[in-house]
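Q: What would this complex look like in 3D?
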Amino acid sequence: MQNIEVIKPLLNKMQQRALLVGALGVFATAVGAFISPEQFFKSYLFGYIFWTGLTLGSLAILSLHHMVGGGWGFVIQRVLESGTRTLPLMALLFLPILFGMKELYLWARPEVVSTDAILLHKSAYLNIPFFAFRAFFMFAVWAVFVFFMNKWSGAQDKTADDSLSEKLRSIGGPALLVCFITITFASIDWVMSLDPHWFSTIFGVMLIIGQGVSTLAFAIIVVSRLAEHKPLAGVIQKKHFHDHGNLLLAFLALWAYMGLSQFLIIWSGNLPEEIPWYLHRLQGGWGTLAILTVFFHFIVPFFLLLMRGNKRSAKVLSKIAMAIILVRFLDLFWIIMPNFYPHGFHIHWLDFAAPIGIGGVWVAVFVWQLKGRALLPVNDPRLIEVFAHE
Amino acid sequence: MNDASKATELYGVMAEFDSPELLLEASEKAYELGYRKMDAYTPYPIEALPEAVGFKKPILPRIVLIGAIIGGCLGFFMQYYASVISYPLNIGGRPLNSWPSFIPVTFETTILLAAFAAVFGMFALNGLPQPYHPVFNVPRFALASRDRFFLCIESEDKLFDLTKTKKFLSDFKPKDVYEVEP
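A: Here is my prediction, written as structure tokens for the whole assembly.
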């Protein structure tokens, strides 16, 4: 179980491929940035929000796992930990957003704010220095949790010290709480404030749950690939995939619950300061996208994941998970892009290039981190019961 | 009385095990051999045991799904009937069939009927309530709710043969093997 050398060639290949795709994507995005800088920032934000969601989702689900400690979590613990260690990369990749603030956010343009009473009122919170400070502060807070969770877990591999499990368990709860608060603010700052007049209190949780969906789907894809090869072949059992499938189903249902709650309240209220957000997103091509999202982000995977057989087969489950990653892009595209193009559907080749570029680099860093440690927390005293007879 | 006539009078043969692993092994072997009419009794749920004694495809999930679908449809059309057909009212200019506001109640009735289907379906499939069951004729069977694991092969099974079945069960290191009075 400990020997990671057997699978190194496969991981190396994955890393090289991801790096190649990432390099091509980054090159294309850089070209796009020169051709049409205004479109570049929009597409870049879209790609950035998805991939940073995987990093933060990894941190949140890792915290949840340390708090509750189920078998499902031990199997994906190293995948999640590697996901959190992409945080420095995402902090670095945040810089272009800082440079593009005036392109992206209405409230960052003094000429707009000075003529708008509401934005003038909100400028105590929505202003450039405070926005940058909040981003810096949140990355610092996340970095603290990422650092200690990875440090203690890695130390246990070497020292087999049982007390480290206790430390990880006690940091899980606070970390999850802090994650919820900080990611809510991040969602408000980075995404919700794209439409600075609009507000929704459930918005942050909606994005957090979406990140949970993406992260679980991503972890399922990675673990199902790892389970095909030594050293994990035969170690990861059907019951683990069954648990992951159930969790994914729960997260999807929660996502639908949040989405419907926001829609129901705003639709019922029908107030002029809230309803435009949906009016823009339900007409023309955006409306079609909304219906597609409801079907493929909830209804279809809900019924697929109700069926036991689909959850117990790693192959089928990972296919469902890949489809869910695609609809996560669809959902974020539908949330972000109508802010810039409220009057009709609009797509640009940079909307593909930027997520692929960021994604390639993200996956390359992820795999690089994954192969640095054993694929399971081998010295955790709780691991024995995870692989008990099914 | 010879063994054959005694066998038809008995409810079955029961073995008492110390550990879930022994019980699981005995159940799997019994199923492999062709025994079908048998049941295992344990103080807590044991994964894979239902499959071992032959519950390959539980039908309760399907009953619950049907209950959920009926509940969802009833819940939605109850509201549709009330606000579109029976008593149409213009509320704030919204359409009569304001489906978004019907969703919460539809959701609740879906859960309600699914839960009813789960509970009552479980009762029906288990044949509950059942005031008498022969397994309690074995005095030590009370330990099934404490720390012992029991496997009972019933005499209705085609392969049942008092001596052979007893012999088969005693191969798995049981604490004891009992004959269960009807």
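A: To summarize the key features: Chain B touches chain A at residues 21, 24, 47-48, 61, 65, 92, 94, 100-101, 103-104 (CB under 8 Å). Residues 60-126 of chain B form one domain.
Q: Very helpful, thank you.
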